[in-house]
């Protein structure tokens, strides 16, 4: 069953009470506005990158009155899990965010860009819990303080009395609808904008299987982290990917726990989800269903090919678990019927490449392997396990052909 839900709203509000006595001739009329948190998923996960203050009702502002120092921003991230849960959440923060740019549009909305970079604390929307090993969405509270008056075009000064936090918006994640399969598997689905075109009017389906950190946890089943934890699914909705695939549907199911916990049980549920999408949408080409995933999802990608050797156009297991406790030699050899491209990094200490990807590559006929020394992107070195970053950026290549182009050529 498919349903589209509203954007994820966040709890929290903030008030700024200006010191009017210290700022003479400032308008004293009460003013209150809301603001949105604007987020983007970087290679290391989702961050709040800017704020939009909905101040249009106050009038047309003189842009020259808005400076980097007009507003200051305090950000607080708290774990959504109660202390009684026994879970310790890493990454919580209570910091001042640096405003790097400020602008106002012709509708009076004010945007404050915030300093954002990989590895910089204070912007993330997810925290990692132990011992469960899950990424959970923080409870975020942003506080805006106005430090100097704005001026309307008639030069009337304005101080805003209070700011109320509204929604977290992320255009890429928000482009995916919400759904739940007949078996109860939550998923997010992207529908291409040009879904009326393609080969014989049909389009490929890309199935993204997340890592262990993005699964659900007990009663906490939010259907969010598989899109916000990394760019694995989001990479395939970028203009570059959509052009390469001629418009692709992208589905990202969320395991209620972790794929490795019950591969035998999850495989038929994922296959049934694919069949449901094919049955409900004739524009999806059943001959071009591609499965890829990272870590837990890399294991699950292999598992899908083992269980359904003629179903998928290609699989891309990234840093997968593939040791004998996961697959027998015969099972991995059976994957040879499905075009396979493996991706891993030599410095992966979570699932070392040799006993996992190395073993799989030795047993799967004609498997392509892209092996990196480290996981380094745009000058930032990530954990060696995070080789999914390369796949999400279409970096792997073989004989001059990149991963996405290769996938787009495969069909049953």
Q: Would you mind describing this structure in some detail?
A:
The protein is of the alpha+beta class. The chain folds into two domains: 2-169, Immunoglobulin-like (Sandwich); 175-409, Alpha/Beta hydrolase fold, catalytic domain (Rossmann fold), CATH 3.40.50.1820. Helix content is 18%, strand content 34%. It has nine helices and 27 strands. A seven-stranded mixed sheet has the order 1-16-17-19-18-20-21. Helix 4 (263-280) crosses helix 5 (296-307). It is elongated. It starts with a strand and ends with a helix. Residues 265-355 form the Phospholipase/carboxylesterase/thioesterase domain. This is Phospholipase/carboxylesterase/thioesterase domain-containing protein. It comes from Tessaracoccus lapidicaptus. GO terms for molecular function: hydrolase activity. Residues 1-29 form the signal peptide.
Summarize the entry for a quick read.
This is Phospholipase/carboxylesterase/thioesterase domain-containing protein. With 412 residues, the chain is α+β, with helices and mostly antiparallel strands.
């Amino acid at each position: 069953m498919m349903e589209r839900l509203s954007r994820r709203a966040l709890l929290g509000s903030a008030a700024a009470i200006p010191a009017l006595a210290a700022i003479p001739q400032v308008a004293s009329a009460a003013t209150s506005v809301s603001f949105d948190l604007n987020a983007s998923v970087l290679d290391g996960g989702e961050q709040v990158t800017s704020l939009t203050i909905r101040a249009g009702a106050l009038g047309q502002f003189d842009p020259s009155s808005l400076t980097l120092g007009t507003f200051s921003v305090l950000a607080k991230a708290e774990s959504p899990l109660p202390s009684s849960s026994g879970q310790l959440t890493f990454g919580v923060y209570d910091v001042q965010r640096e405003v790097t740019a400020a602008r106002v549009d012709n509708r009076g909305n004010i945007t404050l860009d915030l300093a954002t970079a990989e590895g910089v604390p204070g912007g993330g929307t997810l925290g990692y819990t132990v011992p469960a090993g899950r990424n959970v969405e923080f409870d975020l509270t942003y506080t805006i303080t106005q430090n100097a008056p704005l001026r309307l075009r008639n030069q009337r000064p304005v101080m805003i009395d209070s700011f109320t936090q509204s929604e977290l918006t992320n255009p890429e994640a928000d482009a995916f609808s919400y759904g739940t399969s007949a078996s109860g598997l939550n998923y997010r689905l992207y529908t291409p904008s040009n879904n009326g075109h393609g080969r014989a009017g049909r389009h490929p389906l890309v199935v993204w299987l997340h890592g262990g950190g993005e699964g659900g946890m007990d009663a906490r089943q939010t259907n969010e982290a598989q899109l916000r934890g990394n760019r694995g699914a989001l990479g395939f909705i970028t203009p570059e990917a959509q052009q390469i695939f001629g418009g692709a549907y992208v589905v990202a199911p969320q395991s209620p726990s972790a794929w490795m916990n019950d591969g035998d049980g999850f495989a038929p549920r994922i296959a049934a989800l694919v069949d449901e999408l094919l049955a409900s949408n004739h524009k999806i080409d059943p001959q071009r269903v591609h499965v890829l995933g990272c870590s837990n999802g890399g294991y699950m990608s292999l598992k899908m090919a083992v269980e359904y050797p003629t179903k998928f156009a290609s699989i891309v297991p990234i840093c997968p678990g593939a040791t004998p406790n996961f697959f027998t030699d015969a099972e991995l050899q059976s994957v040879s019927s499905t075009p396979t491209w493996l991706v891993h990094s030599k410095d992966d200490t979570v699932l070392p490449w040799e006993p996992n990807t190395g073993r799989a590559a030795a047993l799967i006929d004609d498997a392509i392997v892209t092996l990196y020394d480290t996981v380094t992107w745009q000058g930032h070195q990530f954990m060696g396990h995070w080789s999914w970053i390369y796949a999400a950026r279409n970096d792997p290549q073989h004989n001059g052909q990149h991963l996405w182009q290769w996938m787009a050529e495969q069909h049953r």
